[in-house]
Predict the structure of Insulinase family protein.
Amino acid sequence: MGNKVLRSETLRSGRVDFSYEKLTLENGLTVFVAPMEGYRAVQACLAVGFGSVDRRFLRQGQETALPAGVAHFLEHKMFESEDGDAFDLYARIGASANAYTSFEKTCYVFGATDQVDESLDVLLGSVSHPWFTEATVAKEQGIIGQEIRMYEDSPDWRILFAVFDCLYHNCPIKEDIAGTVESIADITPETLYACTDAFYTPDNMVLAVAGSVTRAQVLAALDRAELPQGGETGQKLRRPEPEEIVHAGAELEMAVSQPVLGIGFKERPRGADERLRWEVLADLLGELLIGDTTPLYRRLYDEGLVNSGFSSDVFSGEGYFCILFSGETREPETVRAALLQEIARLRAQGIADEDFQLCRNVLYGEAVSGFESPEGVAADLAACGLRDEPLFAELEILAALTAEDVRAALEELLREERSAAVVLRPLAGRGQTARTAEE
């Protein structure tokens, strides 16, 4: 049934005491198995290379355009079947389950200590037999509509997409992962079936299982499953994205106790072969600028201008690369100016070896900690599998980086002319407003 193992390799790193097995099945599915001594729990993650930015695709000569929010909508619906809800099946066998959609993938996960075989059957079965009707789609539109409204009340969520909206002209990263109430109203059963046919294919999925599990268990579950056998995976299409930003910023009002600041830098997207290295460099620059051991952070914190929630993040994928700094501050203009001044200082004076080593060690420790739980291992293996990257690649990159590498990256990254600042202010009156910096 296409579940024959074509290739098998055991992967190890000399930097951590950890190994896992990578299996490639005849039908194209990639499977990772990571037995972990001393753990009773098992964590499984089935990842699909279909996320919120995948809005247009070509399959069998036909181009399809999707409304915003389809990948997330599909995540909700894949738990349903004519025989019942997968969450109910998990609950009966004592497993906990969840699912989530990001910009580039959809993941279905479970954690269990008993009846692992049965839990694997539920996981694999939930993506094997999609079932959508007009009635169930209409019901889900109401449920997800409520979820969308809930996220609209989240300051962090509002800031994130407001910054993206300032930076990007065409890239779907600027649109909420769940879509809008209006966009999901256009979703039909036919829309969902078109997406499962195009993207829920074995060569576009990765299964990662970690913890108290064996290779034989996982392969037996795959033999029992009725996964789709091959099929043409949709070719993802992207609209061209100009290098320049849309506008330099925006101000919004919302029911918050103090202002929230978001500063985004639009960077040149990287190809798949260099993407991870540039993500690590961007992470390291964020740590050097605003990590809790840096002079800038300590000064801003001591002056009461930021709290421990002020941080940096990196968003990178096919067609986009953005570095974001965000958090609460009573003086957003002061904090923005201080951040830009610190970027300019590091660019002019260079990065001290001591600061570089300290921040690199922080990121290295965070990366190593991911190998300490089945949850982290399964999630990381699934993500790396979709991107065709070794699990240990980030550690190897961090270990090889020098202060000069980061200094050279700073010559290109974090340019003020490619940045936008969004300030979310406490409500001054009724309703919510937004205006661009040019107004």
Observations:
- Residues 430-439 have pLDDT under 50 and may be disordered.
- The chain has 15 helices and 18 strands.
- Residues 249-436 form a domain with the Cytochrome Bc1 Complex; Chain A, domain 1 fold (CATH 3.30.830.10).
- The longest strand covers residues 320-328.
